[in-house]
Amino acid sequence: MNQQTLLTPVVRMEHISKHFPGVLANDQVSLELYPGQVLALLGENGAGKSTLMNMLVGLYRPDSGSIYIRGELADIQSPQDSMALGIGMIHQEFMLVGNMTVAENIILGLRDLPFVPKLDEIKTKITELSQRYNLQVDPDAVIHDLSVGEQQRVEILKLVYRGAEILILDEPTAVLTPGESRDLNKIIKKMLNEGKSAIFITHKMDEVIEFSHKVQVLRRGKTVNICDTKEVTPRDLANMMVGRDILFSLDRCPFNPGGVKLKVEHVTVNNPLGSRPFLDDVSLEIHQGEILGIAGVAGNGQSQLTEVITGLLPCSAGKIYIDNKEMSHATPLQIIRAGVSHIPSDRGAMGTVGDMSVGENLSMKKYRTKEISQGGIIKRSFMRAFADKLIKTFVIKTPDQNTCVKFLSGGNIQKTVLAREIDSCGGLLIAVYPSRGLDVGATEAVRQNLISQRDKGNAILLVSEELEELQMVADKIAVMFEGRIMGIKDVKETNTEELGLLMAGTTTVRRDA
Amino acid sequence: MRLAVVKRDTKSKSMAVLIPLISFIVSLILGAIVLLASKSSPLQAYSAMLKGAFGNARRFQYTIVEAIPLLMCGLGVGIAFRLKFWNIGAEGQYVWGAIGITWVMQFWKFLPTFMLLPIGLVVGMLLGAAWAGIPGFLKAQWSVDETLTTLMLNYVAIGFAEYLYINAWKAPYGNMGTPEFPEEAWLTQVWGKVHSGLFIALALVVILWFLLYKTRWGFELNMIGKNPRAARYQGVSIKTNIVLAMLISGAICGLAGSMNTAAIAHRLTKGVDSGYGFTGIIIAWMAGLHPFASILVAIVIAALKTGAESLQIAMKLPESMGEVLQGLVLLPLLAGTIFIEHRLKIIKQEAQ
Ligand SMILES: Nc1ncnc2c1ncn2[C@@H]1O[C@H](COP(=O)(O)OP(=O)(O)OP(=O)(O)O)[C@@H](O)[C@H]1O
Ligand SMILES: [Mg+2]
């Protein structure tokens, strides 16, 4: 697969720089992509990967430097311009319009659309394409009603519908389950086999090795390394990105659980629309100083479990106790007051307020306490000191704490949520996909952080789709399937095969709580 | 060649100041075209307007008097707008304030006269709050769309006030309007026509600024307005705060109504639905919901009105001309705000 010689690159970016208030996001970056090639673009959170790609699709304008597409100087001023050049991008954060249908989203922004689009023709074409690439979606479905996995399929359909030849994939699998990622990767492979070229941003090293021919690493906006994928190991890559060795192993104290912190007893949450309840007679308990992992394919009740515990979802039947006090129908505020922290799965929609500053977002759990306010009045100086402390300990990359959260890189938004929730944890921490979108270094740090919280005696409920992460961090693993707990296993006494079977719902062994 | 509006990569601070200025100049040019078309000299017209608004102490006082209720209604709706709660019912809440004070002045005879004014203001506030609380409650409890409810409730309030001053509460003499309030219960004048309501309005500006920018509650309102899901997840009750914000919003608009009635008309009569509540929406919007900025905007809008009035007289222009000019000034100012976050771009189409 070495077509690099003699060909003109399909994309050539030369000495691109981009400056934002307080940061130089890209500093003289050059990049070359050859036909049929997959280039993996790697780098720490905030290294400037998304920014560089956004300039290729006309969302941002470079301050200096030039872009050549198929050898010709291109002046890309808008997403439509890049579309006309055959460039398509899947963004890190979804770019779909929630209350419109799949078909409407796919044609949205097309330049040569007639004033009254012929929806039937469009739908036929969508169906045809979705069959060809094995991307089942209903063109009439409203985006709101789709799972993240399905939404990601719509994003891909958008690209193929528009006939993109150069694909830019910004962490396309970050929000997907391992199963969904595998499916997505198959589709991407198929598109590449048709001769399309791609730039692939990911923090998952196995994807880099599997897909890419060439690797380019950014650090603080500059290119630090370009090499052939064949020549490197995941460990090398991690090292290049963060400039140090990643341990891939964690320190922990021996398992020494205290009293019961959280007890969930026969909890059921009805689903007003579906036939099967979100949660069906779920029982579990977590002790102080214990990490209980929740494994399972997304959509099997994990998010409802965390929301019913945190008071965001009403409990239809059963009881929830925190510190032996019944909290089944407590409000979210009462749960927070009971010392519960919650890292939600969706950092943008729930975890942060994009239009408020980093400092304010970091204070959103503690603004009621003396650490930030006095007698109902927020002390800005306290808030500033508090936020600075968290920015430092959790290594959040931001020009300053007054910057709006929406201007941070994806991974740094995630770190903002992690910092706030881990810092405010007063006994129970509920962490849903905490390492989503983090680079290898930050992932390691978060896992270590969860373990130190456990060592301090906090109880942790960790929802994750990666068995590997759960096996590394948790003491016990509960497997969820169709709203039920299929079994709770001690990490040391179970293995990947057994957990995998439980996740698929095949075992009937149910542990009685 | 095509023109396109594209989002700026970063929000521009200098533009936030420059754009209203440019919009204002555009407005003046547009106005000049209209004036020329109707064969009047724009220069003369504008200087007549300027004189009408600020030309002498009396005109200046008049402008301030107009600005007071505008400012208060702007502050009132601004609070609801922070929650993305589109309270367009300020007019109705204002009318209820006027009804409230009239009720106290006319029927609460058991009160000593010096108590009539303070109690009347408070009752006006409470009625305004209650009137705003209805759509707030409907929204919080059953997600009833507030734009419709608040709008419709205006007409109910205005109709009811009409019934009162034409029928039920009509003074024995004249053909409409309630009896005049006792003179000791009027709002005192502090500088010519300018009444002490000015101090109440300015105090409100400071109080609201403090509430919105310094307190925990203000922080919570900000969260709800910018991302309600995140606010709920952080333990902030959206339902309670919608009702609370609407009560305060209505109270301020109600106070504007009772205060202005006690200061100007001294009775409930025709003209109580003078549009301050609706104009308040424009003020809140143009001031970016900021209390201090609202002062400036309220004065500009009030000056437009007083200026246009004397323009009609000085230039012998039809009454509608003044209104056309007011509208012409507002349009570019409102349209201009989108250029703070967006920019115009010229796309050159290459010859094929
Ligand atoms: N619109 C913007 N305004 C201001 N700063 C921005 C903007 N977009 C990005 N930045 C800054 O540019 C830097 C690079 O961000 P970018 O999103 O490119 O990082 P990234 O490499 O994609 O990181 P991640 O892996 O976390 O997604 C960050 O410091 C970010 O704060
Ligand atoms: Mg990114």
Draw up the topology in text:
The complex is a heterodimer of chains A (513) and B (352).
Chain A: E1 11-20, E2 23-33, E3 38-43, H1 49-56, E4 64-69, E5 72-74, H2 79-84, E6 87-90, H3 102-107, H4 119-132, H5 148-161, E7 166-170, H6 178-193, E8 197-201, H7 205-211, E9 214-219, E10 222-228, H8 234-242, E11 260-269, E12 279-287, E13 291-295, H9 302-309, E14 317-322, E15 325-326, H10 332-337, E16 340-343, H11 347-351, H12 358-362, E17 373-374, E18 377-378, H13 380-393, H14 410-423, E19 428-432, H15 440-455, E20 459-463, H16 467-473, E21 476-481, E22 484-490, H17 496-503
Chain B: E1 2-7, H1 13-37, H2 42-54, H3 57-82, H4 90-107, H5 113-142, H6 146-168, E2 189-191, E3 194-195, H7 197-214, H8 216-226, H9 228-233, H10 238-265, H11 276-286, H12 291-315, H13 319-336, H14 338-341, E4 342-347
Antiparallel strand pairs in B: 1-4, 2-3
Helix pairs in contact in B: 1-13, 2-3, 2-12, 3-7, 3-10, 3-11, 3-12, 4-5, 4-6, 4-10, 4-11, 5-6, 5-10, 7-8, 7-12, 11-12, 12-13
The complex binds adenosine-5'-triphosphate (ATP) and magnesium ion.
The site of magnesium ion (MG) has 6 residues of chain A, from α1.
